[in-house]
Amino acid sequence: MKNFYWMVLLCLLMVIVSGIIYMHKDQVSLIKIPPKSLAQWYKPENKRQVWLHNMFKLRREMQALRFYSQAKEAKKLQKWLNQFSEHYLKIFEMVPEWNKKLDREALATLQNFAQVSNFQGITKVLDSLDESCKLCHTDYRAITATMYRAPDFSKIEKLSSSASIQEHMKTLIKQINQVKIASEDGMPDHALSSLSDLSKGLELLGESCSGCHKKDRKIYPSDSMSQTLARLKQSIKFGTQKKQGEELGSLAVQACARCHATHRLSADSRKLFLEPQSLSELIRH
Question: Positive or negative CA dihedral for 81, 86, 90, 93?
Fold first, then answer.
């Protein structure tokens, strides 16, 4: 009898939870997190992007299989099929949790069709495999790229002896706003002082870029940013408020918006997916 009551209670709890989720369906989006074992095939845990390279090989091999099945060249078809089979099964070797996602029956059918030169059948099996690839990509590709390919700025602990990168960014925001405030209110000396501090802060921030952009020449501040800074300085001294506003707007796009669009969005998303939320945070959401 006790088990019956427990079952009723569990069913009632499930109904309540389901109801709450349904009520908030326009505010909550569910995603599938890839297995943790996938991380070992991406940087920084691995020196190379092994998983990505395996995916690139599979894409190229499927293209070759289609090409040679349409051309009815059995020998070259078999060569690429051997490579495809190896790299397709490697998915299980790298991420055992995805074993059930592999269509081994389709792979065996491909091999049988290749032996009897059933080129039309090969094309149909490739279509089926292509659909299974798309399903997995729909579930995991975007979230995996965000988790393992987005920049991790948490490793940049200090840009100077006193400021973390988060604190430094907040200071830069204050400095660029202070230039605008002082310029608009007719305080050129204050605006120039804030601009000088901003320029130094941008240089200091740029030193952290080389951690990822190892082979690039100085990427931040770029030549165009430096030119805009020089023009902004001149417009504060001698130009109109309209000209000052134009140059300041250009600098904000070059120095802030472009990097934020590339790095900040993906870095913040990565943080959401990788940092566990407490029970109180989940309830609050």
Answer: positive
CA distance to 17, 31, 156, 221, 242, per residue, from 14 (Å): 5, 20, 44, 55, 61
Cis peptide before 221 (omega within 30 of 0): yes
Which residue type, as a one-letter code, is found at position 176? I
Determine the Cα–Cα distance for residues 164 and 143; give it in Å rounded to an integer.
27
Boundaries of domain holding 180: 157-209+217-273
DSSP one-letter code for 48: S
Per-residue pLDDT tens over the stretch 20-35: 766 766 666 678 889 9
> What torsion do the CA atoms of 34, 40, 45, 46 make, to the nearest 10 degrees?
-130
Q: Is 284 exposed, middle or buried (0-12, 13-18, 19+ CB in 10 A)?
A: exposed
| Tokens coding 105 | 């029956």
Domain boundary among 149, 181, 197: 149
Q: Do 64 and 121 fall within a single domain? A: yes
- % of the chain beyond a pLDDT of 90: 54
Tell me the two tokens of residue 196. 């000088």
pLDDT above 80 (res 160): no
182, 95: one domain: no
Average pLDDT value for residue range 120-141? 93
Q: Give CA–CA dist 52/47, Å, rounded.
A: 12
Q: How far is CA 150 from CA 69, 92, 113, 144, 264, in A?
A: 38, 25, 41, 9, 9
Task: Answer whether residue 150 shows pLDDT above 90.
Answer: no
Q: What domain count does the chain have?
A: 2
